[in-house]
Amino acid sequence: MMGKLLKISIFGESHGEGVGLILEGFPAGIKVDHDLIRSNLARRAGGNDLFSTPRKESDDIRFVSGIFEGYTTGAPICILIPNENTRSGDYAQLKSRMRPNHSDYTAQAKYHGYNDYRGGGHFSGRLTTALVAGGALAIQYLSEQGIKVGGHIFNIGEAYDDPFPLNPDFSLINKDFPVLNTDAGEQMKEEINHARMNLGSVGGSVEVAVTGVPVGIGEPFFDSVESILSHWYFSIPAVKAVEFGLGMEFAESLGSEVSDSMYYEGDKVLTKTNNCGGICGGITNGMPIKAILTFKPTSSIAQKQQSVNLETKENITLEVKGRHDPCIVKRAVPVVESVTALALLDLYMEGKCR
Amino acid sequence: MMGKLLKISIFGESHGEGVGLILEGFPAGIKVDHDLIRSNLARRAGGNDLFSTPRKESDDIRFVSGIFEGYTTGAPICILIPNENTRSGDYAQLKSRMRPNHSDYTAQAKYHGYNDYRGGGHFSGRLTTALVAGGALAIQYLSEQGIKVGGHIFNIGEAYDDPFPLNPDFSLINKDFPVLNTDAGEQMKEEINHARMNLGSVGGSVEVAVTGVPVGIGEPFFDSVESILSHWYFSIPAVKAVEFGLGMEFAESLGSEVSDSMYYEGDKVLTKTNNCGGICGGITNGMPIKAILTFKPTSSIAQKQQSVNLETKENITLEVKGRHDPCIVKRAVPVVESVTALALLDLYMEGKCR
Amino acid sequence: MMGKLLKISIFGESHGEGVGLILEGFPAGIKVDHDLIRSNLARRAGGNDLFSTPRKESDDIRFVSGIFEGYTTGAPICILIPNENTRSGDYAQLKSRMRPNHSDYTAQAKYHGYNDYRGGGHFSGRLTTALVAGGALAIQYLSEQGIKVGGHIFNIGEAYDDPFPLNPDFSLINKDFPVLNTDAGEQMKEEINHARMNLGSVGGSVEVAVTGVPVGIGEPFFDSVESILSHWYFSIPAVKAVEFGLGMEFAESLGSEVSDSMYYEGDKVLTKTNNCGGICGGITNGMPIKAILTFKPTSSIAQKQQSVNLETKENITLEVKGRHDPCIVKRAVPVVESVTALALLDLYMEGKCR
Amino acid sequence: MMGKLLKISIFGESHGEGVGLILEGFPAGIKVDHDLIRSNLARRAGGNDLFSTPRKESDDIRFVSGIFEGYTTGAPICILIPNENTRSGDYAQLKSRMRPNHSDYTAQAKYHGYNDYRGGGHFSGRLTTALVAGGALAIQYLSEQGIKVGGHIFNIGEAYDDPFPLNPDFSLINKDFPVLNTDAGEQMKEEINHARMNLGSVGGSVEVAVTGVPVGIGEPFFDSVESILSHWYFSIPAVKAVEFGLGMEFAESLGSEVSDSMYYEGDKVLTKTNNCGGICGGITNGMPIKAILTFKPTSSIAQKQQSVNLETKENITLEVKGRHDPCIVKRAVPVVESVTALALLDLYMEGKCR
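^ inputs. structure came back:
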């Protein structure tokens, strides 16, 4: 469960009946934009091109509750995305044969062997489908308040996109392959192809930004915008680093170099640079929020890995069969946007209550 | 408020009566180790050397509740650390003159000018004193379970310490200046001196590790170990990036390069490398937890900065007077350790309940 | 959302796709007892006799997630109970014509008319089906620890059952009509018949007890057993009073009259009476927990009531058509048991963690 | 910890350094009304007359944080009420000798003997002082929105006050002895005197009402107004029953008898009676909220009681020495009002956020 005023519970398994979530506390009277949901789910779905998993997911979603005559009712919204096209046979061997850097071993240890191990079970990236479906509602709500969320691939392997400028224009993000610089995008595709040809995988990162953010969003200390966003971000499978604004670069910086000069533009206080990523003291300053999330390369690879067999208690060599992503970063972009919107909407609503 | 079974509420202001916290749900029957508390507070306190703020804080702490005859009672523990040696005059000008990259502007906007602006008020790093005091109890409890937490400065500016080895030995951390490599420590001091001489500040990072962690700590999805730890970490003022294991390096890695080979040592499953930082699928795998936190350089610097005066609504040039840290990274080490212990204790207790 | 370690989110509407809930944090490795679930759902279902609503609900339940090969996995359990046999036409007129003492008006006002008004929508007693399904898992878990939950109708109108004795034996509760004293049960049926004949409804109460409770369950102050149980109890539609132990009778009592004399039986501390209902200072003392919940008479009655039409803004006379319960108390018994088990399991797990 | 947007943590012990609480999330910019706080604390304090404990408490309160220049800052408010005039000697014998119907035994069992047993420790009614101090801020805030909270003694033993009328006027409550009917008050005093003369105690109840409540406060299901209020109410030591509106009387009522006829007065929907206590479907309908709380008689009485000695493991006869209340109901009135305001403010703020 996550959230304070907008509470999200997520459920489901990769090879079970389906995945889904419950959104408690979503405002009433919002007309559901099914096109946006479909479009974001399509961006997340694999199977569209060579750069993702060949598992096709049609991602039909069902609103089980909380929607009436096309509008949100204020009651909890249950979204259910049935699974289909699952091939459990691919994974059966994995009950005892652990994939390194995966939840196989930790989940089995934690749940004493009762976990649904098929395709990662509850720990599968498949669950992010639910976040995208629910996140679309948050994106839509925020958008009506003038708050826009956008993301692009920041890097894959050694291929780097341009960073967002001071004031990002999300319409400039390439539709087919979400980068700002299409040349960089071509290099990224090569990195992915290279990994796939070698039966391997490659990591990368996503930059996300939010524009139109009012000043004063975020709560002191534990509910700082960074704390809340990072809590969400690290829930996305494979995320291993989160940075805001300059992020890690701050570690090698002098205070004078990274000071965001403040100035008045009319009645509005702006900054000339945005090293702090739109968040000062944990609270938004009105400049765009900016964050970068690092995704580790998929651990399900067909290359040989050294591992263990929990049943026989032997060391083994593992080659993971099945349909896998050489790189999940492209598919992660709408997930990062969705999660950003859900987190921010909760803080936004809290900002209205006092 | 933070935590589920161990709930922490933090309060106080830099120049008010004091700072403190409440620990709800801390187990009964733990003998309070006042030496550990004092020692950790001393590590956090400024004024000891040239590398920190000249503001001396004696940090006398008072257990207002929850301790009886030297032991925790199971009732909420209120820790109060009275303020002393505050010079509010230093800050009075800051009511209207905003320090860039600081909470001055965001807090004033959020609270319509009612915030206590003196020394950053509730947004001051001073509040971390309370975390260190409370964290010492968590460190002590975990230590009795064989779980140890240790941190060191990883870098300051361009001076980098050695990273923790596969199995960290915290007794090797230098006592006076917390690094593994004392030569690196000398270079760091130079970076700090350089910043101080220029009336500026410099950023850096802290590496923290936890050893003796049982397999299976952490809860699925939103309560992954990374999610919970990062939520806490980003609550520490000035933290702008958090990485687990290889962290950002994953973005340029191939899956095959970063696979943590698993093997049996007796009945125990271990990994030959620890790129995932002891956390797979959000759950501990028994290897040491490892994280790196990046701290931005202090924004209170005496160098000229461009800013605004909220009262006159004019653009101004600001030189921040007062006692400031050229680098907070050294003092942050016990804070990071304390927060790690508090977060982990909560997850550890949850791991026992089912 | 309710609960700390065992988090429950409930969703659904009376005339939508279905109702359900998510159980987060339920322990892994529990074999699902489908017979218990079916049996409890049957006790809650209407349509079995003359004493309940003629709306028949087959209450097929689907475990969408969290169950694998018949056992709980530790991952969130989503239970979905599809709706069937809904006759929305019965309710269409109620969009503008408010039933007194019902959520019709408050929900419409709160949600600006976007609420699903059919059959009470999210405010329908239908949602308790989900609580019964999820509660069966909690009952089963507790039962394996020797903790038993049982309830009976305490009164309907002026017909009163015997109260539970000091040490209740739940096997003595009548199966068909849940009372201890079958004569009292006959009188209750007459009360219900009388109400039905008059196109009206009648209120009543349920007594619930828990045996085998360990000493020391419950947390101080806000998480007292009474606080947590009552929070759950008042979530059950139509509950308007909750008493523990002697309850309201305490108000006319002298301290000396109601003192529960304590004594040793072997090593065990017992009390000769149980006026405090097994809870002292908010914490269990090892004696049975006892509570009584009062249910108001159903507000959907066919008798004439004075009300308002929100559309025409006129005062009106209302006769509620449709299938209604003359008395919900009998059907409420398994709901009260289920909710008691869910609440107690959460506190029980918390008791194990420190 | 209690609350969602307004989070309250309570701490302290009867004979420790003091008691207090933290209010997180209280709105900024509210001028603290010290007279109201003092006046409400005085109403709660014992020692004023023959009808309460002779222990005098001056109840000086200290705002440790969250207040600046007389106004709330938006940061967490820590209120500390130091203890004084404690005579621990009175209680020393109680370490091993358990008072029946008290937390003595349950706390010792739960905390393995580490609890502060002096005067009930953390389980003492003394902690309600903190609720009254914090509640005064909530009362003040609500009052500025036109929402008023008032309570009176409803009964003590067999002496009953008049109930609140349909629209309560709190100015009619007697100041010295909070009843509506002063004759009833005189009878109550006799009940108390009678109990005191016999070295005993007597129970009673408090009726509380809230006027000026907007329609639509409260959240569906688990966060119904009744659920939230009762959670708070049962946290008050000695409360054993909570009723809303007609409460227990509903159990003997017919639906037609208790239907609250609705009608338009201008544009406003009102009801002719208020059996539902201003709450329908868990949500406020704009009529006054009404609740009755039953307090059990104090268990600390000087009369002989049968009990146990936990050290010697023997059955004993106990006569509790020390200063005790023959009846706590009068002192409970401001506590009930305070808690009502805190609970309601949280729900009120939530009502503004969507």
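The first helix of chain B runs from residue 34 to 44. Chain B touches chain D at residues 1, 7, 9-13, 16-20, 22, 24, 28-29, 62-66, 68, 71-78, 80, 110-112, 114-116, 121-122 (CB under 8 Å).
thumbs up if we can close this ticket
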